[in-house]
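Thread amino acids onto this structure.
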């Protein structure tokens, strides 16, 4: 969203079973509620063509609605459009008072008084922030994730918002892409479950309640496969990846009744998503029966010109509308050209009606026609923002999101009575960076820093910064400048480390180094931090490395030398408290990586569920699928995460029982403390009409075990898990041999097999 101005608070501030896994809501009306359908039809019949097009137009917040009206320029134009009823939605307007003032114009000044729907990127919290989405995903805890989305919805709804542009359900296998922080990682199965949990959390059981908001599955489709991890770049993927990897989370979102879908900036096999009729009209709305509405991405309609797909803005409007893109975010394409295009017969009015029906239906479902101001209660806003219950929920989420990557000689947990604890690293004293990226509404300086967290838990320590991570101002719209030179404070940190028993080093990325437009080609520790780590190591090897980052990092040196490594992502508002609790054993880490950590950035895209190739092995030979200067193995595999206790897996069994495969395994806590484990089930269809990945996650269960306790974990694989999409886009389940694997991560598994 390069040209967007975010205005702050107050200111607009061979089919065996023939089972398909698609949604099939095709025969439904737009709403399940007949009364709503009738109301929509009645309203539609009263609307002029221009008013209809207006509903399909979304503007960014452009002035402070509680102040004087804009008198010139673009703002004046938008203001007039608003009063004419030519704006169906706004984004980035928030605050109960502000939203009320804007809504009042639409409701009281426009001819038909149709309320607007107010959208915002409520990604991992609103004011009270949970861990970044990738971090939350490491919890594999669907209930906690749902709760986190509920908290976000409650706060956003209290600030007048009724629609979030989340969850991002793009699968991505490339750590270079900055937006991996916003999704659920590399796996389709896990990503689908997490997407659904988020949608349920945002939308709740009753969309018309004043603490629930409409969700938006984005970005349809393929955005996570930008070539070389460079944001907005070309996407060129084959049918198998499209159907088996990219589409399923969207299909799951539809099954969860997601109200809106956002298309994407990228071209997909040559056609921009926004102008892609096959994607939006044929597949999404046609075959899959999606009844909600499609919003374009920011300016994506206009960007079809730069893509070389539309000659001018008018043609862009024509292509997007005909392709089924229902609402235009900030391209001005629809509002300027759509009415003319209909009059010229280039766009059917029936398609306009279809789009408007979808939009109005969601507005009815949100209850906006009953009370357009239901989300605009300033007292509720005051009561709910930063509510203690919300802090408790995001702390719980943060505790569950931490991943223990290494713990040689059980360095962790640390002993509270230890005398000489050194804390080093600028991020330890940072109250903004741990909030992460994509936090449109939150306030800087509101995270509990690591130092504060330690104090809150009565831990005595001595701190030395060592080096800054960034230089100058940081912000959502400001490129982060990394400190690549200033090592002036190294000496103090090294001296402190020398005289300490243990050194906690808090290193990593700045929160704004990931997110939109933040692709990286070097995914090591930014700036001088790697050097700082190595210098400190020379004087004290008893180091606990606390990582903060918005994407997988490649840290082979740290893995080879540092005894304990804790992945904390960017944990949000309660960061420091969650980290202190984990370092000192009040929290036993249970997170598992939702994305592979490479050894070397050049391995990207790297992911566990790859194909075998024709030459998977070759030892010391030459002609096999490998690098001559780096192993094929990741640094940490998908699903990986240690605990302060240990788990033993035994007695894996799998048998075909009618239409299903029943799998069981015993897991025992063989350590000294209670802990949570995520048992993961993978399958491998060994020979199929289309080659299948060497492993695919098809089930998981998270549970807690006391020391010495065991649990029989049981899974059932149905046709849904055993089948796949062939290259005709048909879902098939094929007979043959399957490996069944269960274990603690994607590499460390027990294996058996069944024949279907
Ligand atoms: C992003 C979307 C986001 C939109 C609105 C775009 O730049 O790609 O994900 O929802 O802006 O802020």
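Threaded sequence (756 positions):
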């Amino acid at each position: 969203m390069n040209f967007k101005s975010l205005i702050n608070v107050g200111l607009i501030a061979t089919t065996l079973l023939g089972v398909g896994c698609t949604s099939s809501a095709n025969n439904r009306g737009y709403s399940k509620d007949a009364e709503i359908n009738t109301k929509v039809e009645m309203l539609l019949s009263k609307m002029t063509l221009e008013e209809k097009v207006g509903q399909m137009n979304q503007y960014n917040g452009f002035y402070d609605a509680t102040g004087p009206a804009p008198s010139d320029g673009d703002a004046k134009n938008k203001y007039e459009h608003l009063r004419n009823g030519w704006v169906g939605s706004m984004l980035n307007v928030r605050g109960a008072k502000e939203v009320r003032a804007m809504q009042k114009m639409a409701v009281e000044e426009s001819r038909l008084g149709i309320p607007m729907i107010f959208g915002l990127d409520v990604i991992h919290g609103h004011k009270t922030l949970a861990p970044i989405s990738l971090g939350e995903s490491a919890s594999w805890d669907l209930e906690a994730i749902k709760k986190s989305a509920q908290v976000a919805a409650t706060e956003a709804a209290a600030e007048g918002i009724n629609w979030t542009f989340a969850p991002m359900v793009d699968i991505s296998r490339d750590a270079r892409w900055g937006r991996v922080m916003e999704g659920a990682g590399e796996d389709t199965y896990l990503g689908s479950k997490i997407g659904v949990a988020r949608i349920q959390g945002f939308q709740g059981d009753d969309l018309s309640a004043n603490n629930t908001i409409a969700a938006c599955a984005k970005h349809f489709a393929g955005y996570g496969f930008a070539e070389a991890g460079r944001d907005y770049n070309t996407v060129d993927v084959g049918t198998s990846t499209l159907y088996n990897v990219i589409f399923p989370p969207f299909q799951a979102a539809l099954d969860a009744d997601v109200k809106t879908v956002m298309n994407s900036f990228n071209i997909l096999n040559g056609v921009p998503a926004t102008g892609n009729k096959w994607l939006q009209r044929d597949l999404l709305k046609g075959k899959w029966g999606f009844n909600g509405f499609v919003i374009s991405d920011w300016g994506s309609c206009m960007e079809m010109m730069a893509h070389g797909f539309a000659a001018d803005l008018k043609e862009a409007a024509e292509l997007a509308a005909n392709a089924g893109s229902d609402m235009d975010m900030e391209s001005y394409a629809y509002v300027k050209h759509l009415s003319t295009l209909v009059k010229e017969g280039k766009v059917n009015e029936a398609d306009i009606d279809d789009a408007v029906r979808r939009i109005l239906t969601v507005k009815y479902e949100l209850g906006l026609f009953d009370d357009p101001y239901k989300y605009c209660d300033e007292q509720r806003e005051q009561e709910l923002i930063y509510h203690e219950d919300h802090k408790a929920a995001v702390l719980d989420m943060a505790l569950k999101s931490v991943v223990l990557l290494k713990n040689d000689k059980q360095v962790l947990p640390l002993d509270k009575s230890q005398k000489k604890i050194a804390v080093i690293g600028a991020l330890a004293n940072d109250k903004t960076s741990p909030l992460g990226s994509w936090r449109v509404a939150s306030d800087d300086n509101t995270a509990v820093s690591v130092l504060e967290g330690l104090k809150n838990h009565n831990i005595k320590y001595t701190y030395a910064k060592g080096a800054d991570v960034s230089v100058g101002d940081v912000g959502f719209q400001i490129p982060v400048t990394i400190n690549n030179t200033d090592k002036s404070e190294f000496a103090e940190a090294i001296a402190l480390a020398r005289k300490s028993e243990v050194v906690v080093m808090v290193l990593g990325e700045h929160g704004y180094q990931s997110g939109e437009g933040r692709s990286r080609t070097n995914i090591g520790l930014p700036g001088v931090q790697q050097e700082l780590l190595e210098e400190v190591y020379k004087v004290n090897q008893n180091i606990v490395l606390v990582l903060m980052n918005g994407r997988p990092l490649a840290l082979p040196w740290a893995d080879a030398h540092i005894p304990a490594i804790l992945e904390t992502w960017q944990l949000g508002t309660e960061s420091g408290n969650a980290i202190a609790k984990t370092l000192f054993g009040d929290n036993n880490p249970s997170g598992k990586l939702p994305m592979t950590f490479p050894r070397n950035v050049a391995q990207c895209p790297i992911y566990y569920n790859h194909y075998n190739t024709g030459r998977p092995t070759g030892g010391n030979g030459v002609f096999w699928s490998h690098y001559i200067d780096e192993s094929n193995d990741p640094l940490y595999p998908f699903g990986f995460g240690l605990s302060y206790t240990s788990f033993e897996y035994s007695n894996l069994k799998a048998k075909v029982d009618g239409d299903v495969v029943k799998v069981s395994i015993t897991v025992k806590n063989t350590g000294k403390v209670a802990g949570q484990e995520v048992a993961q089930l993978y399958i491998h269809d060994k020979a199929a009409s289309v080659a299948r990945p060497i492993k695919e996650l098809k089930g998981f269960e998270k549970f807690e075990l006391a020391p010495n306790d065991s649990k029989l974990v049981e899974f059932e694989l149905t046709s849904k898990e055993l089948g796949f999409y062939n290259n005709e886009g048909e879902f098939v389940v094929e007979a043959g041999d399957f490996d069944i694997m269960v274990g603690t991560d994607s590499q460390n598994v027990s294996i058996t097999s069944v024949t279907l």
